[in-house]
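Tokens for chain A. Residues wanted.
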């Protein structure tokens, strides 16, 4: 690893720690030339499947977009950030387990609805009413009856 202070190519790992959530490794390093210390982080690189939109476009998976959708549905609902993080992790695990390198956007919507149904019924109805593009009040009533 190149020293960020002097550019020397030889550094030594002085300390290694696993992050609290286990998602990455923190390493303290010391330069062999200038002896200054710095921190590096190691995180596994994962390749999520490409998202195929309704119009056929393919886009990269974006965790922030998923979080924003969940947060919008859960706005002013008694659901903790940890619960939302857990739902995102479960959705991402399912995406990574899929055999295909592409997934239709409606499949992600179904995964989101499944998680919202577990977290909060009102948020589930909010998301489903927009996601399923209800045509009339009967469709909405059917969804609410399903949740009860």
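Reply:
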């Amino acid at each position: 690893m190149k020293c960020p202070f002097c550019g020397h190519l030889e550094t030594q790992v002085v300390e290694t720690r696993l992050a609290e959530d286990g998602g990455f490794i923190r390493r303290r390093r010391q330069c062999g030339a200038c002896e200054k210390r710095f921190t590096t982080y190691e995180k596994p690189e994962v390749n999520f499947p490409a998202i195929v939109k309704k119009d056929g476009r393919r886009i990269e998976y974006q965790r922030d977009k998923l979080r924003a959708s969940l947060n919008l549905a859960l706005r002013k609902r008694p659901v903790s950030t940890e619960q939302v993080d857990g739902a995102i992790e479960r959705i991402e695990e399912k995406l990574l387990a899929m055999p295909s390198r592409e997934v239709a956007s409606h499949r992600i919507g179904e995964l989101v609805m499944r998680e919202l149904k577990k977290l909060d019924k009102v948020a589930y109805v909010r998301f489903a009413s927009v996601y399923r593009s209800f045509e009339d009040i009967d469709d909405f009533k059917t969804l609410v009856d399903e949740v009860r």
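The chain has a mean pLDDT of 89. The first helix runs from residue 63 to 73.
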